[in-house]
Amino acid sequence: MAEKVLEVKDLVVEFKTDRGTVKAVNGVNFDVYKGKTVGVVGESGSGKSVTALAIMGLIPNPPGRIAGGEINFKGKSLVNIAGEEMRKIRGNKIAMIFQEPMTSLNPVFTIGDQIEEVLELHQPNLDNKARAAKAVDMLRLVGIPSPEKRVHEYPHQLSGGMRQRVMIAIALSCEPDVLIADEPTTALDVTIQAQILELMKKLQKELGMGIILITHDLGVVAETCDDVAVMYCGQIVERADVKTLFNHPQHPYTKGLMESIPSFDSTTGVKKERLQTIEGMVPSLFELPSGCNFQDRCKHATEVCKGIQGEPHLRDIGAGHQVSCFHPLN
């Protein structure tokens, strides 16, 4: 059994607003193991990125706070940890690739400066020459050509794909135990997407790190993940290993997401069937229905789903497959 490096247990994150307090994440559970990838999937606003920011200790307080649950890194609690102690872990033992590299990289510092800054903070034993050499090595590791030249360039001089590789180089410079990748390929074209995902898999194999991959793209999940957690309205509605989830989705929301993926006949290249859509919109977190949050968009909803027995909870239906639904599909 692989070593568990991160445990998220019953996590609740809430924000105070003019309209009252809202729970953006409500009771999320998952584990991350060494050398394994967990995919966190869902539509925009489902709580994926807030979960990641909570793990990194980056929830702005006020207005947000971790209101309940546990985040344990190698047995050490990260909830309410002192700021100085968290800074020693963040970017060092747990690193994150943010969604948009152009807004994450500082436009007035060179690529080399930004990699060296992380090394200076977390590896003070390295001198200036060693940090500069490692910055070049990291760019070479992530497949950037002419790294000796690129370390002296600024973010605007690089393409989108190369900036994303720089973000990965920064995140991996301290060889973290856990890498959180928040939509790492969203702004990239398909060929660059494939290269970035292949690079992450290769580096994971070499460094043995656990990865949390946050995405709305189930195609990416199928290619890269070992386990998957599907989120909706701040909660996990289904969780399973990747093969089980794709072969036997049990929650209507998961099924709907999969039916929205284009499929083509491999011999003719023709689209097999008409794409299905999930009707309606994600409900406002201020106006969640009683019972199941997905009821207004679900073809299988009954009176039970409207709250006469409370709300559904994540339960095991066998072989580690969990679903939060009164009427699992099979």
How would you explain this protein's 3D organization?
The chain is an alpha/beta fold and 330 residues long. The protein has eleven helices and twelve strands. The chain has helices at residues 48-56, 83-89, 101-104, 111-122, 128-141, 147-150, 160-172, 190-207, 218-224, 242-247, 252-259; strands at residues 4-17, 20-33, 37-41, 64-73, 76-77, 94-97, 178-182, 210-215, 227-232, 235-241, 315-316, 322-323. The chain has an eight-stranded mixed beta sheet with strand order 6-7-8-3-9-10-12-11, with helices on both faces. A four-stranded antiparallel beta sheet has the order 2-1-4-5. Strand 9 (227-232) and strand 10 form a beta hairpin. The radius of gyration is 21 Å and the shape is globular. The chain starts with a strand and ends in a 7-residue tail after the last strand. The model has no long low-confidence stretch (mean pLDDT 89).
Global outline:
globular
- The largest sheet has its strands arranged as 6-7-8-3-9-10-12-11
| Low-pLDDT windows of residues | none
Give the N-to-C terminal Cα separation: 29 Å
Strand content: 15-25%
- Global structural class: alpha/beta
Q: How many strands, which pairing sense, and closed or not: the largest β-sheet? A: 8 strands, mixed
Number of strands: 12
Mean pLDDT: 89
The share of residues in helices is 25-40%
Helices and strands, in N-to-C order?
A: EEEHEEHEHHHHHEHEHEEHHEE
Number of helices: 11
Q: From the alpha-carbon coordinates, what is the Rg to the nearest angstrom?
A: 21 Å
Q: What is this structure, in a nutshell?
A:
Helix content is 31%, strand content 23%.
